Amino acid sequence: MPNDEQPTHRPAAELIADWIVERLEAHRDKWTADHPGKEGRAPPLVCAIQGPQGSGKSYTASKLPALLSRASSSSPTPIRTVALSLDDLYLPHSALASVAASNPSNALLSGRGQAGTHDLPLALRVLRALKTPEPGADAVRLPVFDKSLHGGEGDRVPEDEWVSVGAPDEVDVVVFEGWMNGFRPLSPPTRLRELYSLAQANPEGASARLGIDYTPPFLLEHDVAHLEAVQDNLRAYEELWELVDVFVQIRPERMGFVWEWRLEGRPLQEHNMKAQNGGVGMTDEQVKHFIARYMPGYELFLRGIDDARNPWVGGNGLRVVVDKRREVSAVERF
Ligand SMILES: Nc1ncnc2c1ncn2[C@@H]1O[C@H](COP(=O)(O)OP(=O)(O)OP(=O)(O)O)[C@@H](O)[C@H]1O
Q1: Which residues face 178 on adjacent strands?
Q2: From the alpha carbon of 12, which atom of ligand 1 is closest?
Q3: Angle, to 10 degrees, between the axis of helix 57-71 and the axis of helix 12-34?
Q4: Which CATH number fits domain 12-31+43-333: 1.10.10.10, 3.40.50.280, 3.40.50.300, 2.160.20.60?
């Protein structure tokens, strides 16, 4: 593991796998110390991964099971990993339509993405079933959300098509990746209105305050009340973050990479979507609309990851900074 802030030439997935192995050992040692004389094994380590669209979190999460089982070859049994994505925990299409109808004119809630469009009871149920399995519990089934259904609006697939991950008491690590994992309301929530007014009066000043490398901020494309509705919805996610043990943030050197990646990756993403699902790709306008809907979330709520109330802050957080080519330029623990 490199020292904080040192550039590295290793791929992000390898660095993250090594760190997870280290954190898993610490997690098991702590469990043994907290349960003297108790037979059995520690519950799985829940590792959240956050990164903006295109930063490579799905790619990284897909590499981790093999890397972790290899990294553990010296231990008696290989590390068994289950991967879960926040993208599979969206509300079904009919419920997304209800959210949109209840928030007319709020573009942030007009489709899946922001806080308020996930099925939190389902997310809590699945994560709890993995984290605190009863001995001999049934296999856990992970929901699947197909983004290509309903002309790209997406829908959850029927339960008999969910992914079975086997007996939960054999799982060592749960990798939970999501674009807005760890997001929290501003503190105090009234800061949102202050930042918004600042952005209206002085967009450059607001960009500096928000730590973004472009101006004006995308939040100005929305009504302040619409941003506040998303902020209100975020409160309920704190229960989910409580289930996370360790946290990896993939942070681009510049937030502007997000739409550069989106536009560059588009032909491939469209191609994949069409090939896999017969879905439809995005036009230029749709890409712009998509970006305007996601970027305010990063601008306002991303810093919640570092909130001291999060269980991972203070030694169980890892920030991996990536350049435009998604190569690691710095690593920092938090
Ligand atoms: N380290 C890497 N090396 C090579 N290609 C990568 C790497 N990381 C990501 N990619 C590629 O970059 C593209 C975007 O990555 P990925 O889909 O994992 O991003 P993401 O953060 O999960 O985005 P989204 O939230 O939109 O799903 C993919 O085509 C992926 O294969």
Answers
A1: 50
A2: 1
A3: 60
A4: 3.40.50.300
E strand or H helix at 178:
strand 173-178
Model pLDDT for residues 4-22, shown as the tens digit of each residue: 555 568 999 999 999 999 9
- Å from CA of 32 to ligand 1 middle: 37
The Cα–Cα gap between 28 and 123 comes to 24
Dist CA 57 CA 2 (whole Å): 20
Give backbone dihedrals phi and psi of 329, rounded to 5 degrees, phi first: -110, -15
Give yes or no for a contact between 79 and 21, defined as CB atoms under 8 angstroms apart. yes
Computed on alpha carbons and rounded to an integer, the radius of gyration of the chain in Å comes to: 20
| Distance from the alpha carbon of residue 269 to the mean position of ligand 1, in angstroms | 10
pTM, 2 dp: 0.92
Q: What's the ipTM?
A: 0.94
pLDDT digits (tens, 9 = 90+) for 169-215: 789 999 999 999 999 999 999 999 999 999 999 999 999 999 999 99
Does the Cβ of 298 fall within 6 Å of ligand 1? no
DSSP class of residue 118? Answer: B
Domain ranges of the chain: 12-31+43-333
